[in-house]
Protein 1
Amino acid sequence: MTTPFILPIRVYYEDTDAGGVVYHANYLHFFERARTEMLRDLGFEHTKLRTEYGVIFAVKNIICDFIRPAKLDDFLHASTEIKQVKKASLIFEQTLQRDEITLCTARCQIVCLNTDTFLPTAIPDFLLKQFLTKSNEH
């Protein structure tokens, strides 16, 4: 069982529709922020990976299950866990909760791309080791 990375998120007016409910596409924004902050927490930033190592990460596919609505001014927690690590891709499982209530879940496959060709490439070894360590925590 891995230890999830948790990102607190406040729902702002800009996140909602006219009824004060979070617009469905914004859940993807919340999950993206959580994955990005998890990477930063591991000591890596997208800019450095792009400029120094010539790699970027892109979403290959994502499956979301919208369970309950998030609303204006809610205080949420986005949890992120690495569930699978391959040579050039990762699978994340993510959950958005208000208190102990699950609002949305997602399973997201991320692929590592070469910045020159935008073709899949191996995740750099130093980063792959971090991902493997994070995915195997007990």
Protein 2
Amino acid sequence: MTVGQSDAAQERRRLREIAAGESHLCHRAMSALRPQFGDQRTFAEHVDGVLRPAGYRLVGCFEPGDEDAVAVAGFRVADSLAWGHYLYVVDLSTLAERRRRGHGAALLQWLMQEARRLGCGQLHLDSNTGPERFAAHRLYHAAGLAIYSHHFARAVG
């Protein structure tokens, strides 16, 4: 059970993978993390037309009465020399007003189960939330994730 969550709260929550053509259901929750996709149609077209063909998948967390996901994770499975066969969490976002209800932890648990099901040796997540997002970092640590490296990047344009 997620800390602070009752059995009833967990039973009401529903997690499921989001199929192509349903990506719009994740727009509101993903906009909390990726506000540059302000338009639902543009977001869904980008996910379905660009990201999914490259292996991107979505899983959403739904509360009763909500057609749209209240929390969402975008991920892909890949292989590398450094990590072997792994699941990489690209995006993990919850609507601001629905945070602290266990949705992020439930998504991370689902992702760990999916990684095991697919024979992945590791799960990776880069926190692009910045050092001031302590609540997000507490969630990652509580899910058993540890800081193993620094991620460096530079704009090329």
Protein 3
Amino acid sequence: MGRRRHRRVETVVTKPALEELELFDPLAPETHADPYPIYAALRDQGPLYRTPREAWLVLAYEPAVTILRDHDRFSVEHSRYRKKREDNLLGPTERGLENIMLFKDPPDHTRLRDLVNKAFTPRVVERLRTRIREIVDELLDEVEERGEMDVITDFAYPLPVRVIAEMLGVPPEDRDRFKGWSRGVAPILDPDLDEATFVRVAEAGLALAAYFDGLVSERRAHPRTDLVSELIVAEDEGEKLTEEELRATLILLLVAGHETTMNLIGNGLHALLRHRGELQRLIDDPSHSRTAVEELLRFDGPVHLTARTAKEPVEIAGTSIEPGDMCVVVLGAANRDPAQFPEPERLDITRHPNRHIAFSAGGHFCVGATLARVEGEIAFETLLRRFPKIAPASDDVRYRATVTLRGLEALPVTF
């Protein structure tokens, strides 16, 4: 039988008119369905765009990478917390949340990251492959006879939650409790929170903190071979990890440990279902799974943006940035910059090279990137091998309201 040829479908991007952009807020939740034509139109005007919220939107690849790697002139500290700290107005919840590693600059970030890195080395993650395959097959076994599922609820969410929960040592009966808490905490990564949202974040954060306080107490009395026990040992051996940092790190590992992979699988499968030629290429040749994951991360990644605050005057791509200015690096826009990626609007599961920044860059490159990649690779390869006739069950696809984390509410399919 001859080798099947696949026709590549070119994606035509219809960009908004310039007058439409003048009143447009790119960070507004209503743009989530498809922000990419807007980003392309804005980038045509220049690599940086001043938003109605008085933040700089960084849309091009080179300035994005420059800012992400420049820890001397740009800070990750949340501007909201910094101002309140200066005014001595930080509440207990904010003091807890500001201990999250994502909001810390070196040297504190480096110290915390070095502790966590040991659990996510490529060697450690490779040892998890067999267990990840077992979990994937168990989840697909549960839905096979139904002939349909919601990819998010039945597959993309429980897979990474079970993996990270087992790594942390969370009992199986407690896993379902995390979904609401994680959804509640997720907006803390957004660059601008209203008071109502912050209250919900605080409530979820306190619930998670209370849970992990109990788990830490239990592990202090009865240590095991899990990540919680290892972090406790690191804390007890010196001043490397405070009690507040331990709690914040556990919350971050749980939330980030499953949100990234859940969105990778959901967004990625949605993209494949809209590009049937590429879906069929992957079904026909599963050896493309690794490069497919990289392309899906680039095309519609799980983390859409990240923020930095200028610490001193700096010029980026011909634009003068003042101290205190927030620069919102739109990873999704940078990953479709035609100066870096030929035909960026086309999905190509064999794209190479593919130097996307879906996991950020520099010192804050995602610590769990290797784990997310392996989970995604196994998930797509197994799902498409077992259910090659997979198809969307509905055209009504909605993205969650979070700005930083980009993920679907649901993705119903038949197979």
Protein 4
Amino acid sequence: MSSKLLTFRPPRIAQFLVAAAVLLHWAIPLRLELFVNSMVGTSLITIGLYTMTAGWWQFKKQRTVICPTGTPTSLVAVGIYAITRKPMYLGIFMMLLGLALIVGSIPFYAAAIAYFVVMDTVFCPYEEGKLLRLFGDEFVRYRTRVRRWL
């Protein structure tokens, strides 16, 4: 199952999860709204968009592949990557969590959690194994210095 998930790009997985959350939100007649806070939700979406874009921009700047299944040409360890090893995934997760805070329904929180779990258990181990094979000790030093998420 995990290798099949790797055929989908993380933003597409997020879009699918949001669509499923919308359908479940409207299909379930009982509305149990939790932790609704539009201001915090909007702030998380904004910070998440910045975080994701900053990571994307660093990849473009160093001219390496953005696709998780592609072969990177360099180890990006500067800019936002000096704070988190997974800024693009973290940014998307923050946007999903922000959306959940705005809507406040369980399916939206479940979508954010599902996204995080898939990234942490499928995509991150796959990518980090590849980086270890390609960059060896350089990646080990980077992994020791910078946390995966925050």
